[in-house]
Design brief:
Two copies of one chain form a homodimer. Chain A has seven helices and 16 strands. By secondary structure, chain A is an alpha/beta fold. In chain A, a hairpin with a 4-residue loop joins β15 and β16.
């Protein structure tokens, strides 16, 4: 049995009846037969966020939508939550702050259950903070270089459905190129993936395909022969790097994470 | 006789007595023996801009500082201006709008004279708009993808001291990665160079070396095997590209523009 598909969304996906990204999620979950769980723990206003998604998923024809209410680590150990997860065909992890997800769920029974269910084929989706949490490595804090010249990237530990990948979201819209480059310069074995808003990657079998409106950027430092990270007195990082590989993809294109290249064979792109 | 050195500055260079970038310019110009001309045509407030630089260059020990007042194409054909240029050891092109430089000076006698003098060894520097104008190709207008999702890059013609190079400035500080990538995707034979504020490249003999506080990014699409630029209905560009090479450099590092790689031999870096 192979692991489930992961739909990783760059935030701000259209919550309308024909929004491409969420429609894809519902299709993967099993359409009208699906039972979808919303995990809003990243958000400080989980009820509001959940209501929005319940409304959207119902618009998309899903009858059975559940909220996975986990506001403490105790909740994340509660057997009733595991029973709920067990009944679902797909889980949607909302936006908010990815640190809340790792602090409240990382290492708990819920985390373990999600991993087990996913390995057996359950579909998982996450947007914004819910996208960042998907990989083992995640960016938890960073200023940008915009205007104030400061950049300090801090990494944390995500749920680990992917390894050797670092997901960033709201990518072009929040000008996060510098922070992803900085993170990858510090960890050249990891592939950086910057996902724009209302855009998603569907990951399966070490490949991903792009859905949605904008662009996905892939940053690969593996073949670099030189990296030197200089941290200035004010904490800003300035980089000297040689020969990073850069790829960008739009809707319909696919990327091979194992071989680190754009897939150009016909038939693979829709 | 070889062409003069070009000091290309990403804008907002420190105008203080020990500012590294402008100190380097004054050194190249011949220190106290230099005669520096300030060309403020890019600016809508040329007198204010010129005063600032006169003050700074005098602080740096330069006695002879002249302003090259060119506000019309007629001025740019005036023999007295050519006489002035002929008396200078270096010209500093200020910031403002690079389109003003191309509209008021491009193709005039002044343009031709600067080119001739530079080919005989005169030092040229430009900051911000004055940096963009240095190459044959330049970005004249572009929205960013920041917040509003729109990106349309328009290219114009610069003074052409460099060819097959596209200079962008205020690079990290104004989050211009997307616009440079878009421009290079449209013109993969051109090398994109994004220069941060208070940072400069000194170009000579098809190599450059970095001076100043921050970072210089080099974007090279020459070895890419796939580029597809999609323009959406609202004019935004979304890119699919494969295998662009990316380099970043800080103070003391050098880049070989002919071979498109970071120079790592000892002795070349200071």
């Amino acid at each position: 049995m192979s692991a489930g598909q992961l739909l990783i969304i760059g935030g701000a996906e259209e919550k309308i009846h024909d929004g491409e990204v969420l429609s894809k999620f519902v299709e993967l979950a099993g359409d009208k037969n699906s039972r979808i769980g919303i995990l809003p723990t990243a958000s400080e206003i989980p009820d509001d966020v959940s209501s929005d998604y319940i409304h959207t998923f119902k618009q998309l024809g899903v009858v059975r939508v559940e909220v996975i209410n986990v506001a403490t680590r105790e909740c994340a150990e509660d057997p009733s939550i595991m029973e709920l997860i067990d009944s679902l065909s797909a889980v949607f992890i909302t936006g908010g702050d990815q640190s809340r997800l790792s602090e409240l769920i990382g290492g708990t029974k819920l985390h373990e259950t999600l991993m087990e269910k996913w390995k057996k084929g359950m579909v998982l989706a996450g947007t914004s903070a819910g996208a960042s949490i998907m990989a083992k490595q995640m960016i938890v804090a960073a200023d940008t270089k915009l205007n104030d010249d400061k950049l300090t990237v801090k990494l944390g530990t995500g749920f680990g459905f992917l390894d050797h990948v670092l997901i960033d979201q709201h990518f072009s819209q929040r000008a996060r190129f510098d922070r992803l480059l900085s993170a990858i310069a510090d960890n050249t074995e990891i592939i950086g993936i910057g996902i724009d808003e209302n855009t998603a990657i569907l990951v399966h079998d070490n490949k991903f395909k792009v859905y949605g409106e904008h662009q996905v950027l892939v940053m690969d430092g593996k073949s670099s022969n030189y990296v030197n990270v200089k941290v200035s007195e004010n904490g800003s990082e300035e980089l000297t790097i040689s020969g990073f590989q850069l790829h960008t993809l739009t809707k319909g294109y696919s990327f091979d994470l194992a071989n680190r290249k754009l897939i150009l064979e016909k038939g693979i792109q829709e």
